[in-house]
Amino acid sequence: MNHFFVFLKKELLEYARTYKLLILLTVFIIFGITNPLIAKLTPDLLANFMPEGMTVTIPEPTALDSWAQFFKNTQQMGLIVLLLVFSGVLANEISKGTLINLLTKGLSRQAVIAAKYGAMLLVWSVSVGISALLTCIYTVYLFPGDPVSHLIFAVFCMWLFGAFLLAVLLAASALAKGNYGGLLLTGCIVVVLFSLNIIPGAAKYNPIALAARNMELAAGAAEPPALYPAAGITVLAVLALLGLALAVFRKKEL
Amino acid sequence: MDVLREYWLFLLPLIIAQFALMITALVHIFKHPTYRFGSRAMWIAIVVLFQMIGPIVYFVFGRGEDD
Asked: Is B21 touching A (CB cutoff 8 A)?
């Protein structure tokens, strides 16, 4: 446990020093502010770009539009930036050989994997938390009184999907070689997950559902129990992926 | 200008965040002569021209080693 915290601290320091922390926090802060603003301004912008004399009726934006922006941005740009920033999570230290010293001095490989995942998860949690909080504050300010349902659970699903992707990235980085091998493998796995939805009945258990059905939850079109199977599978998958990452990393020559 | 007056509460932090990212990237570019690829002029152009995306791309792909 002690090793875990020492290495966790080292990881977080490294994130600060290599600008990873700065990038993620700034990007998610920017998203947090932009989401409600875009929702509010879209009708005005569209009206400005329309040719003279043409009238289109655009429904008045609501808080739901603001949250639709939040889920869309977090899911697309947010997760892409997250994976890009952490793409060298294992490869960097393996290629530089900086881990060898620590491991020969008695740091367990288990602690390395656990702390690396813990540090990434912590940064992701803080980032998505700040983004959701800012979106929430500004949404209430711009669209007071609009109803949004199951918001905390919808954001939790988004967070869980991010946590799942980070576990995929860690396992993929342990398996693949080089700086971008892990990233490439993660991309392939996401594509496979998307195509699994073709199989009838699979969509219910697919982790993808956690990132796809947030708006249904927020709009009240779906109830949280509809996502329990996918959430359960995702938690199990995270544990299995961490186990896999550890098993591969144990055997890895450094 | 109405939009500016009405929404400064959003735009101000947004602009500050974008600039913080850009300036950190520029400082890093000027302090480090070597990049994984590309030249100093290229990275300055990318960071200044592409808000938010530019600095991210620089830090993730372009940043040379510190030592």
From this structure: yes
Instruction: Provide the domain count of chain B.
Output: 1
CA distance B33 to B60: 17
Closest chain A residue by Cα to residue B66: A18
Name the residue with higher pLDDT: B60 or A123: A123
3-state secondary structure of B35: strand
ipTM of the complex as predicted: 0.86
**Rounded CA separation A131/A74 (Å):** 9
Task: Give the residue, A216 or A49, on which the prediction is more confident.
Answer: A216
CB A193 within 8 A of CB A161: no
Closest Cα partner for A32 from B52, B19, B13, B8?
B13
Q: Is A36 on the interface with B (CB under 8 A)?
A: yes
Give the least confident one: A45-54, A134-143, A162-171, A222-231. A45-54
Q: Do the Cβ atoms of A149 and A64 come closer than 8 Å?
A: no
CA-nearest of A154, A80, A111, A135 to A11 is: A111
CB contact under 8 A, A19 and B52: no
Per-residue pLDDT, B67: 46
Sorted by where each begins, the domain ranges of chain A are: 2-251
**Which chain B residues have a beta carbon less than 8 Å from that of A23?**
21, 55-56, 59-60
pLDDT of residue A239 exceeding 50, the answer is: yes
